[in-house]
Amino acid sequence: MALPRSGDNRRPLTLRDVSEACGVSEMTVSRVLRNREDVSPATREKVIAAARSLGYVPNKIAGGLASQQVNLVAVIVPSLSNMVFPDVLSGVSKALEDSGLQPVFGVTNYSPEKEEEVLYEMLSWRPSGVIIAGLEHTEAARAMLENAGIPIVEIMDSDGEPIDSVVGISHRSAGRQMAEAIVAAGYRKIGFLGTKMADDHRARKRFEGLTEGLAEHGIEIADTEFYSGGSALKKGRELTEAILTRSPDLDFLYYSNDMIGAGGLLYCLDKGYDIPGKLGLAGFNGTDFLDGLPMQLATIDACRHEIGEKAASIIAGKGFEDGVIGGHRIELTPRLEAGDTIRR
Amino acid sequence: MALPRSGDNRRPLTLRDVSEACGVSEMTVSRVLRNREDVSPATREKVIAAARSLGYVPNKIAGGLASQQVNLVAVIVPSLSNMVFPDVLSGVSKALEDSGLQPVFGVTNYSPEKEEEVLYEMLSWRPSGVIIAGLEHTEAARAMLENAGIPIVEIMDSDGEPIDSVVGISHRSAGRQMAEAIVAAGYRKIGFLGTKMADDHRARKRFEGLTEGLAEHGIEIADTEFYSGGSALKKGRELTEAILTRSPDLDFLYYSNDMIGAGGLLYCLDKGYDIPGKLGLAGFNGTDFLDGLPMQLATIDACRHEIGEKAASIIAGKGFEDGVIGGHRIELTPRLEAGDTIRR
DNA sequence: CTGAAAGCGCTAACAA
DNA sequence: TTGTTAGCGCTTTCAG
Questions:
Q1: Which residue's CA is nearest to the C1' of nucleotide C3?
Q2: Can the peptide bond before residue B276 be classed as cis, meaning omega within 30 degrees of 0?
Q3: Domain HTH lacI-type: where (chains A, B) (predicted)?
């Protein structure tokens, strides 16, 4: 006996059902439903009425197979739970609006293997393009991207060799930029707090940039504190307490993201540290929730929304009618926002 | 002349290419690639080697059409930019792991029309199930869901009649629960701060529950402050300043989400309000970033991750081997976390 | 402007 | 265990 089941087993409607309902050939129904111009208004109306009243939903599987075209853009990011990627995705969505393309999101949790899986899965739907975070991929993933035969845009990071196009910022130079600001403000004993960076290449590059930038002034990072897991205010507090307990003489703390930076800021304010006088602080990302904190945390804007928008525009072929599609290299310039937590 | 273009026009590989490369029939290649058991180890290895070395990626469009099965689950949520839906999505991803199903995310920006579009688009890919936030949909969207012939799970909200299955909490009773706690703690002049609720039905239901709960004790909401746009700390500060300036005699502020609540809390601490003595505060969602604030904001946990997980389990048919698939109703019980911002 | 025929790349069903 | 055949539902192409 058949189980009672949600969605009874009515066969989904096909073009043929609509065709029969309105006495127009399948072919013409198909034309109407794809908004093609070469159909008489009378026929068009008949078809639309029939399709609507039946509740017909086209089958893109069949359509995609027949036309060898799929209006999907695969967007692959490491995480949704911090404040950075949702912004990127909204930029993508915005740029794809009215392009006829549809973004499809996949999440890798900063795991190269998971990225490879997600990519494989997505490519098997033959999307029109891929937007993928970062320049570091497994060998297999690189091969898939290279052979996909569609535009690929690597985003967020411009420090390295892209497969096809790239839209991002240099995290290395963001790190150096922060180093300059820190040194210029007179801080000398610098601590770094952030994720364990095995697979967060952008955080690593910022760290390296910071290290290099400081080295040019003869300064070495005085202490570091690493953690794993998502970004959270509480983590920021804990890390800050740990590093300041161990190295009370630090006069600057650089955080690998704004959220833990904000946690650190709240901790320091609680404890009565003199900020930015005796202790300076900075984060990274330029997330707008910093606006509501008691002091404005210094940060570098990662241009998240704009990156998403530009990347999607490349796929959609908008704004690049210069005869070349693909192979674009767009490096955005991150702005340092000194806020209230660096001495002036 | 052809433009230089990313992804040159190599024809994507087909099963046939793999078949020819290893001298095994297309059908058997297909079996191997779908991990079917009925292939000899020797053949299997030959096929896998050939597929790998060619870099073959199966075409799910064709596969889906032939098998009338698509391993996609459509997940439709209003927003990614607040802290609630990413948690839901991670619950979904977790539950779908190893089920062979793949979540696909769509975002509606709290617009019923956009929801309808996204749904139409997703249904046209003939997914195996739909997880969609809320019980309120356009008439057309309802019709599509009812006729899709696949399991539908409406999530987040249990106040209303689901189309098929539902997993959520009662926002109305969450509002009442908060009203009880507020009254029990002795607060009497209550202010409400939140989004304009035209399309945020869950925020509306919480507001209604709060109103009803207070009414039972002869209390009316003393003042309200509405805004539009995303949740942000800064918004919380501004709203709080506005409402307390206009109604300085308020002794409790109820926020429609934790983020603006946190902004309000920081504002009140800045201004030296006696919390929770003279002024109580509460938010909603139970987002874990509250942990790092100077005081723990009272909140009600919306069970986000669990909702995503249970909803996905229904689609995957896990944990429901009682002879019925579909038509499940799971109402979770939100926990009130009084934190430090309600008097004891 | 409309229709008929062929086939997209794969898999169900059956045959060997 | 492997191969053959016949579509899946749509769109391309070409003919009217």
A1: A25
A2: yes
A3: 13-67
Distance CA B235, CA B228 (A): 10
From the number of C-beta atoms within 10 Å of its C-beta (0-12, 13-18, 19+), residue A186 rates as exposed
Has residue A138 been placed in a domain?
A: no
Rounded Cα gap, residues A284 and A199, in angstroms: 18
Residues of chain B in contact with residue A149, where contact means CB-CB under 8 angstroms, are 7-10, 12
- B317 sits in the region (left: phi over 0; alpha: psi -120 to 50; else beta) called left
Task: CATH number of the domain at A16, please.
Answer: 1.10.260.40
- Bond before A276 cis per omega within 30 degrees: yes
Out of A39, A56, A73, pick the residue that ends a domain. Answer: A56
C-alpha B152/C-alpha B146 separation (Å) is: 8
- Domains contained in chain B, number: 2
Per-residue pLDDT tens over the stretch A239-265? 999 999 999 999 999 999 999 999 999
CATH, residue A176: 3.40.50.2300
Confidence of residue B6 (pLDDT cuts 50, 70, 90): very low
Vertex B150: Cα angle to B146 and B151 (nearest 5):
90
Domain span at B221: 171-303
- pLDDT per residue as tens digits for the range B54-74: 999 999 999 999 999 999 999
Q: Do A90 and B81 touch (CB under 8 A)?
A: yes
Q: Which of B303, B318, B336 is at the close of a domain? A: B303
As ranges, strand C nucleotides with an atom below 7 A of a protein CB are: 1-13
Give the span between the Cα atoms of A139 and B46, in whole angstroms: 22
Chain A: nearest CA to B55, how far in angstroms? 7
Q: Tens digits of per-residue pLDDT, A30-70?
A: 999 999 988 999 999 999 999 999 999 999 999 999 999 99
pLDDT tens digits along A30-41: 999 999 988 999
A233-246 helix and A258-270 helix, angle to the nearest 10 degrees: 60
How far is A291 from A272, CA to CA, in rounded Å? Answer: 21
**Which helix (H) or strand (E) segment is B226 a member of?**
strand B223-227
DSSP readout, A36-104?
A: -S-S-HHHHHHHHHHHHHHT----HHHHHHHHT---EEEEEES-SSSSHHHHHHHHHHHHHTTTT-EEE
Q: Which of A190, A168, A194, A170 is nearest to A179 (CA)?
A: A190
Q: How many CB pairs under 8 A join A and B?
A: 177
Q: In angstroms, rounded to a whole number, what is the distance separating the alpha carbons of residues B83 and B241?
A: 24
